[in-house]
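> tool_call: predict_assembly(chains=two)
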Amino acid sequence: MKITLNKSSFLNGLFLAQKISEGNASIQPILSNIQITASGDGKIMCRATDMSTSVTSEFQAEVFSQGTATINGKLLYQLVSNLSGKEVTLEKKDNGITLTSNKSRFELSSLRDEDFPNFNFYEDSSYVGFESEILKELLEHTIFAVATDETKPHLGGIYLVTEKNIAKTVATDGHKLALAEYPYEGKFSVPGGIIIPRKGVNDILKMLTEDSASVGLHYDKELKILGLKTDTTKMNIKLIDSKFPPYEQVIPQYQENRLVMPKDEFLGALKRISLLFEGSDAGVILKITKDTVMMNGIDTLKGKGTEEIEIDYTGETMQIAFNIKFFETIVNKIQGKEFCMFLHNSKSPALIKPVETSNFIAVLMPIRLD
Amino acid sequence: MGLIRHIVHLNVTGFAAQVAALGDPTLVGRAFVVGLAGVPRAVVMDVSPEAFSEGIARGMPLAAARARSRGLIVVPPPTEGQLRVAGALWELAGAVSPQVELGPRAHLYLDLTGTRRLHGRAVDAAARLQKEVRARTGLSPSCALSPNKLVSRVATRVVRPLGFVAIPAGDEADFLCPQPLTILPGAGETAVLRLHYLGVDTAGQLAALDEALAAAALGPAGAKLRLAAAGVDPTPVGRADEETLLESLLLQPDTADPEVLSAALWSLVGTLGFQLRNRGLGAGRVTVTVTDGERRDSARQVTLREPVWRDAELRAVAAPLLERAAPRRLRVRRLGLQLAALGPPRRQLDLFSPADDRGGLQSALDDLRRAHGPSAVRRGCALLHHGT
């Protein structure tokens, strides 16, 4: 195999593949490699997999001789991105791969092509269009709530469901829950819902940085795989084969204690209080009265802080405590200048949502103080 | 040059014996020891000054102590009194400094650095505290003030049982110079013997010893002990989050019976859990220590994501640690429980699990204990053990 590639298109083609191959050496050394295949029509394919997510990117190059080579993805990407020339030549030789550009020449070792896992992608006709921007919004608004606790695998991803012309994503770690929804009338349908693992979501978000208005989706119900396709890239993500918890049951329906708070002022106050705790998982206590909320943070060593914010509140006087980090992350996701909260009592979940839009809600469980 | 620290150490010599005498004035002026009479292989847990003057020391077998002093009085450990007095010490110290450390047997450290505007000169504040402890608790502590914990600790041993000493900054090494090595924390029998072979018998001689020679004689601990002999100790006074609660039980006889060990653990959990909740704290780290019949120690520890404070939770965390620390058939002599990383009790509630309201029962039990004493209510499963 011998090919000459334009550096920037090579980097674009390599980007996702090297991200997926990165850090796989501990699983299996061959998985830290990417496979480059050059065909006679000048088409180059870069493939990579971590056995959960597989990706292939296509782009054009000048092909002098066809063939296949496997090469360490991270090393190749870093080398190419640091080359001074605009063109790169890759040539496979007996003992490895030679990479040349201008006056640079690197001879890189390579693993056997036969050891690289074989995986296939779905036919182009299998995919149905889904607006990229909507998918991105759905995922970005909920990924923060995905559980990082490996003992809760069923909560380790984002639940994507389509129902009644709505596409919806939900994520929860058991303490907080995020739900985003957008009107959707496309053909992609997962009425029973699918759970996309956190890593897969991150890979999708990297894939969606490409300038394509639409992304093709395909759900393989039998193999529990979500296929995605853009103009140059195809990706298969192994879904979490588990039942998502009955999230509807934990979304509060109460309306009686409604609080409207200025977002930036609240975040500023929360930030100042959190300085007392040096990033630890501390709580903030809210004392809510008719016109003000007093925010208290107490650290047994450093002292205590109080912030007062004027609010618009209808309901009973209440005291409730929340994890500062969870609260801050949720409010940061809210668009607009204000957000509102619905409360029931100090042990019941709070419903948090933007005032101006209705496509995002979050539920946050309080901290119980004994 | 950094700020000169003012570290106070209050040392209540024979803490358990002093507390016992407070509870029973007839003991004052008499030779008595604290221990478990009638228990095989019982040891002396604490001694009165009179018993000490008769050659009886802590750790001595009770039988040997009795043989040495005819008519020796043996009193049981005044556990509840010790808890009450420790609480009073904590309160008194907390009013003087925010940085307080209360160690085992009521070793109390305070950092008075930067408190001059509030309490006047550190030496005056330390003397006032010593007087106040005497007046409020009836205890007679020795008291020392120096720029670090180590020197203050050694100093209270030098002037005990009742004295007061202040060692100015810069005089630490001079003060320690004539002291015997055995007075230094960390200088065990083996270390002292090895140093003796090198002609080193005092702290001053050790401080002057070549660093390489100290390391050759004592290994990595040599350098640390040499610094200690020179009066160097940067250790901060334990803060609230570094404070620990510690309790242990001597099992009589040694046992490998899982039921007895479980009951002993419940008993420890009950004692420490009550102390923890009384102070409005939760524990973020739990350690179980086991000493077997051959006096070999093993410990298992877990750091928790969220603090625990109720007995049932503490026990649920400690039980697997006990299983790991004491494998089957290991005959346990002493079982210990330590709670650390103490902080406010709080729990992140879960969306999919109903709120746990069992705290009500725990609160009711604690109220009974506060009203009628820590042993007023006990768990049945904690009554099986035969320890103390």
